[in-house]
Amino acid sequence: SSPTAPVGSILLLLILLSIIIIILSSLIAVARKDKGQALPPGFLCLPLVGETLKLVAAYKTEDPEPFIDERVSRHGRVFTTHVFGERTIFSADPEFNRQVLTGEGRSFECSYPSSISTLLGRHSLLLMKGPLHKRMHSLILCRFSSPSALRESLLPDIDRLIRLTLDSWVPDGQEAITVRLLEQAKKITFDLTVKQLLSFDPGVWTESLRREYLLVIEGFFSIPLALPCFLSSSTTYGRALRARNKVAEALREVLRKRRDEKQMRDRSDDESDQQRQKKRDMVEELLEAEAGGLSEDEMVDFILALLVAGYETTSTIMTLAVKFLTENPPALALLLEEHDSIRAKKLHESETLDWTDYKSMPFTQCVINETLRVANIISGVFRRAVTDVHFKGYTIPKGCMVFSSFRAVHLDQNHYEDARTFNPWRWQDKDVPLQTSAGAGIFTPFGGGPRLCPGYELARVEISVFLHHLLTRFRWEAAEKDRLVFFPTTRTLKGYPINVRHRRPVI
Ligand code: HEM
């Protein structure tokens, strides 16, 4: 045998020994740090990898629940694990989740991986803190989830833009076509958000902005390597950073142009200004806030993150609602009845939906709740403890990462009967606190506390209007088998391709 073989084995042994020593010393360090503080029970394992690989493997399947079920039955609903390079307290407990959400800013702070925070920008609402966060959060809440804003300015555009996309689906003379529903839903939600924020209708500009956005979003789940410029375009993160800069520049240009227009208007004392006040978009609101000290960088980050926040979330729920309905014919039939009766009251096909119509869709709300419950794209939120936090005899030390899992609570048999089955009827005759931080905290698809999703009602309206036009105009069936996965986000692998055909001729 070769004389280098024993040398190789000794080297390998030495490397293995060093790894074991590093791991042991880290474990001892962790144990020392925790001495005197009773952490929730759980798994203290390899500090580098921890349970990340197991978690990722579970969430890449259609049924990730056993990962959590096993740990909950072994350790209880609040347990310690080690994921994504850090010791993390995992909570499947509604009471603890509520404590985390409502303790924002006092005992907990939101925390995102550096790839996400760099790409969103440090002034985005998701990373803002303190009084500025409070002010900007209520600005969005007021613009996007108040009944008056939705009724008067948002709903008509939502109705029009959703029709515009659906109109392009089955061209004249063609019986049926195949569309990837997730892709179409994403186009719809992006166009809607651009309209709501910047007042632009869909066109070449919005489409090229969307292409850059896709690159930014891909970068969220990549490794943020700082490479030299000439190498950076070869990595997902580098491409995302470049796309982010392009989007920021495009938004900066819009802001400058609108600022100039505003100044001209202010000088000319235009009579129609009152009219314009009624139809103010987000840019106009921000330009007002600029006078109060908001910088251009803050405005750019703010708009950039808003475009991300409502895009993937709403389009995924639209797609999954259709998937679950397709797999549940009785629910589909009941929903169709609800929407046909709304359409029957209209004089012609092109008549838009109004607020009264939206308010007469009770079963639609059941379908949306149930879709959010069984497959929300936001399966939970990461937070960092900013003080020592006590819960049921345990101490979560300052600085420790916490993951409040909404999904684990939503799929817990103790809170919902037959919890793992899609059953929209379970919501009938239930007075669900829709913004959901209230109550027992067992239904929190939009989070809660100071960071409650400010687009929660806008999202519901968009999904309802989309379902209305899809159901009343088309018939469809799944074009191929598609699989749901939950990592890195909740989605179907193929974007849910469906064969669609007109239900009746459009008048
Ligand atoms: C079905 C659709 C949606 C779901 C499930 C959803 C869910 C959520 C959740 C769970 C949070 C809380 C995150 C946290 O606590 O860290 C959140 C925050 C947020 N959402 Fe939504 N969202 C949806 C649609 C929208 C829409 C349409 C908008 C557009 C305005 C929006 C804008 C935001 C913003 C700006 C935040 C950050 C709030 C803050 O940090 O103060 N979301 N969303």
Automatic annotation (TrEMBL):
Pfam families: p450 (PF00067). The chain crosses the membrane at residues 10-31. It is a single-pass membrane protein. Keywords: Heme, Iron, Membrane, Metal-binding, Monooxygenase, Oxidoreductase, Signal, Transmembrane, Transmembrane helix. Residues 259-280 are annotated as: Disordered. One of its GO terms (biological process) is brassinosteroid homeostasis. It is found in: Membrane. One of its GO terms (molecular function) is heme binding. It comes from the Eukaryota. Its cofactor is heme. InterPro entries: Cyt_P450, Cyt_P450_CS, Cyt_P450_E_grp-I, Cyt_P450_sf. Pathway: Plant hormone biosynthesis; brassinosteroid biosynthesis; Hormone biosynthesis. Gene3D superfamilies: Cytochrome P450. GO terms for cellular component: membrane. Its main location: membrane. Heme binds at residue 453. PANTHER family: 3BETA,22ALPHA-DIHYDROXYSTEROID 3-DEHYDROGENASE, CYTOCHROME P450 26. Belongs to the cytochrome P450 family. This is Cytochrome P450 90A1. The lineage of its organism: Eukaryota, Viridiplantae, Streptophyta, Embryophyta, Tracheophyta.
